[in-house]
Amino acid sequence: MIHFLFHRLWQSALVVVVVSFVVYALIGLMPGDPIDLMITADPKITPQDAARLRSLYGLDRPILERYGHWLSAALSGDFGFSRLHAKPVMQVLIPAIGNTVTLLGLSFALALLIALPAGIAAAYRPYSKTDYAINMVAFSGISVPPFWLALMLIIVFAVMLGVLPAGGLGNIGGAGEVGGIWDNARYLVLPVTSLTIASIGGHTRYMRAAMIETLRQDYIRTARATGASEARVLFGHALRNAMIPVVTIIALDFGYLFSGALITETIFAWPGMGRLIFDAIMGNDFNLALVALLLATVLTLVCNFLADVAYVWLDPRVSFQKVDE
């Protein structure tokens, strides 16, 4: 087990280094740089001043040399400054990470609480009216474009009914009172609903497919033949094995949502990681965009690692013995 953990940590570190170089190179190859933006903002800067600034910031060096300096500083804990926010990168990222974790955590939990029972119910009686109804709702959620859904929610609940804010972040200072808690929570309702609806259909379909295949296995028929109750067969035998492929999808989907909530966060003006990455790339804020994308990569790797650990808990037949040997 210990050998497996070190092996996975080594693989994850290698992936992070490779991804960091690829992202650094792609951002470095983008047209324009911070000096060009400074020239645009201040036409009085002479070409000699621009060349001196590029030399000062190392922008005139080869990309490998620039990446080496950045990696050395990052390993020492210095991720640089954000040009757009005029702050150290981590001071900008930490609030955005908290906002995104709040948004995605609530929407992800709600999606799983609805999708997993719905998938089980559909698989228990396949091709029944219940199954067809759940499938229709799931396909509707998969087919609806996230940006259209977000706009429709704003039009209905913020513009027409006026019961919820169209976007933004609540006043954190007022969270100590009951009214303040609700005022802050109101800003979460629409973006959480949008992300929940967007992801609930896929999880329902995955759960249904996994449960249908599991319920057809021989050991399920054996369990029923021994007189086990349907609840024990369904939740004690079938569910645990059906969750193995679903756990993989959940782990990958959460890492994707972390960086893929760009549309939702932009439409609802939610100051999270997705919007931060978009603003950093559009504003040529190299350090901020690079570190934010790397955090999304690290989160995906962590979720994959947790999925591997969950396999052992769900299926005792899975072990790391071969890796240890």
Report a brief summary of the structure.
The protein folds into two domains: 2-84, no CATH class; 102-282, MetI-like fold (Orthogonal Bundle), CATH 1.10.3720. It is 77% helix and 1% strand.
Which terms summarize this structure?
mainly alpha, MetI-like fold, two-stranded antiparallel sheet, 14 helices, 2 strands, 77% helix, flat
Task: Write structural notes for this entry.
The chain is an all-alpha fold. It has two domains: 2-84, no CATH class; 102-282, MetI-like fold, CATH 1.10.3720. It contains 14 helices and two strands; from the N terminus they run H-H-H-H-E-E-H-H-H-H-H-H-H-H-H-H. Strands 1-2 form a two-stranded antiparallel ribbon. A hairpin with a 4-residue loop joins strand 1 and strand 2 (87-88). Helix 1 runs antiparallel to helix 13 (286-314). The chain is flat and about 85 Å long. The termini are close together. The relative contact order is 0.14.
